[in-house]
UniProtKB/TrEMBL annotation:
Family: Belongs to the RER1 family.
Source organism of the structure: Iris pallida
Subcellular location(s) of the protein: Membrane
Any Pfam family the entry gives: Rer1
PANTHER family tied to this protein: PROTEIN RER1
Residue stretches spanning the membrane: 39-55, 61-81, 141-158
Alphabetically ordered keywords of this record: Membrane, Transmembrane, Transmembrane helix
Gene Ontology biological process terms, A to Z: protein retention in ER lumen; retrograde vesicle-mediated transport, Golgi to endoplasmic reticulum
Function: Involved in the retrieval of endoplasmic reticulum membrane proteins from the early Golgi compartment.
Entry-linked InterPro entries: Rer1
Annotated GO CC locations: endoplasmic reticulum; Golgi membrane
Membrane topology label: Multi-pass membrane protein
Protein name as catalogued: Protein RER1
Superkingdom of the organism of origin: Eukaryota
Length: 194
């Protein structure tokens, strides 16, 4: 029986598939081990961002890449600050955030969880850093205009997001698990005596 050319291609790609599977498994193991360490993860991302910023500063270029990175990071931030169920769109079906004190407590669930937020930011900085090694991405542009436009876009977007947060009374940040303190004492015992 003769070996077909398809069998030869399959057998030559088998070591690559095994290497890819092993690499993917090791990388996922690294991610799983880093999950309970948010401070270390964010410090690592800060180091990567600093290296990227230093490279762009020393080269004096790649402003379009930085602008695209800034727009992408702004998009991620909006997802991080937004609830998974938008009360503006889904308010009629009963799955909205509580707006009155008598409503049932529903915890804030982000559209983009913290881990995915961190992972996406880190990947974005790594991709942008790799792009700085290719001159095709170094488009000559007057960078102060891009910076001004990004700052205006940031403030307008954040203003809209904060107004949304105020309107629907949700805060996307918490300081850990809330503890029940019991019933508060009556108001007459807390008044100072003259």
């Amino acid at each position: 029986m003769e070996a077909s050319p398809m069998d030869a291609d399959y057998s030559s790609s088998l070591p690559f598939a095994k290497w890819r599977s092993d690499t993917s498994r090791h990388f996922q193991h690294f991610l799983d081990r880093s999950t309970p360490h948010p401070v270390g993860r964010w410090l690592g991302t800060l180091a990567i961002a600093s290296i990227y910023a230093l490279r762009c500063y020393l080269i004096q270029g790649f402003y379009i890449v930085s602008y695209g990175l800034g727009i992408y990071l702004l998009n991620l931030l909006i997802g991080f600050l937004s609830p998974v169920v938008d009360p503006e769109m889904e308010g009629l079906d009963g799955a909205s955030l509580p707006t009155r004190g008598s409503d049932e407590f529903k915890p804030f669930i982000r559209r983009l969880p913290e881990f995915k937020f961190w992972y996406s930011i880190t990947k974005a900085f790594c991709v942008a850093f790799v792009m700085t090694f290719f001159s095709v991405f170094d488009v000559p542009v007057f960078w102060p205009i891009l910076l001004f436009y990004w700052v205006v876009l940031f403030f307008l977007t954040m203003k809209r997001q904060i107004q949304h947060m105020i309107k629907y009374k949700y805060v996307p940040f918490s300081r850990g698990k809330q503890k029940y303190t019991g019933k508060k004492a009556s108001g007459s015992s807390t008044l100072p005596k003259d």
